[in-house]
User: Fold this.
Amino acid sequence: MTLFPKKVKHRKWHTGRRNPAKFLRPETRGISVDFGSHGLKSLSHARIKSNQLEAARRAMSRHLGKTGRAWIRIFPDRPFTKKPAEVKMGKGKGDLQGYEVEIRPGRIIFEVDGVTEEIAKEALRKAGTKLPVKTKVVARV
Assistant:
């Protein structure tokens, strides 16, 4: 179950700038635990690919069991491209490889509910190890 958009307006996007001043600024949206009792919060900036998000979701849901409920608070809608190996420069932009999402510090990535605090924390910790960002487990205020 890899996440990707059903339909896109533009198949290929510009790469965008990776200005540290913009990305180290904390996130303003999606920063509170709204659905579950515990959440996984990002502490750094990264681009999370859909397969990394799926690996984290699987690790989390395996640990939660049947009683636990999980929410994914981010969606990979940004396409990224890659040129094949050993191809000369030029000849246009590479083929679409998949989709990713840009994460800034403070963003809630996953939320869980329906399990004890220990199980929720361990499930979110396992999910965090699969992602290319530093994370911490937070509880609902």
